[in-house]
Specification:
Layout lengths: L2 H14 L4 H11 L7 H23 L7 H24 L8 H23 L7 H34 L10 H23 L4
Helix pairs in contact: 1-6, 2-4, 2-6, 2-7, 3-5, 4-5, 4-7
Amino acid sequence: MSEFLAFFQMGVRHILNRGALDHLLFLLALGAVYRARDWRAGLGVITAFTIGHSVTLALAATGHFPIPARWIEFLIPVTILLTSVENLRDWMHAAVPVHRRRRAVFAGIFGLVHGAGFADYLRSLFLDRIAVPLVSFNLGIELGQIIVLLGAGLLFTGVDWSAGRIPAGGIDRFPLRSRVVLVSLGTALAASQMALARAPW
C-alpha cells in the first residue's frame, strides 16, 4: 500500500471511529439547520470549516501551533456547545440562519481548533517527510466528513418528512424548527459533559 493511500485511509477512519465523537458532534450541530435545498449555504459553511482546520492541521502537525493539547481537547467541545447555542438562539426566534455569513466565519474559526485536534493524532504517525501524510490525511478527513454529513442529511430529511405528516395539532407545525432544537439540545448537552471532563484547570 502506498504512503498516500495509507494516510488517506487513516484520515477516513479517524473521523468515522468512536474516538472522533467530538468531531462528529460538531458536524451534526453545524449541519442541523440545513435542508437539501440549502446545499449552497451548507457548502459555504463546510468550506470555511475545511479551510480553518487545514491551516492549523498543517501548522500544528509541523510544530508551529503553540496551544497545549489539553486546551485544544477542551476547546473542541466548547465549539460544539457554541454552535448548538447559536442554533437554538436563532431558531427559538423562528429565524433562518442558514444564509448568514456569520455562520461561515464561526465555522472557519472553529475549524482552526479542530485542525489542531486532528494534528495531535497525525503528529504521532510522522516518520521523516510530512507533505504526503499531511495532504493525504487531510483528504481522508474530508471524505469522512462528507460521509457523515450525507448520512446526517438523509436522517434529517427522513425526520422532517415524518414530522411533516403529523396533523397540525401535533408537536410543531414547523418540523425543521423541531429538528434543529432537538439536535442542538442533544449536541449541547453532550458537549457540556465533554468540556467539564476535559477542563484543563
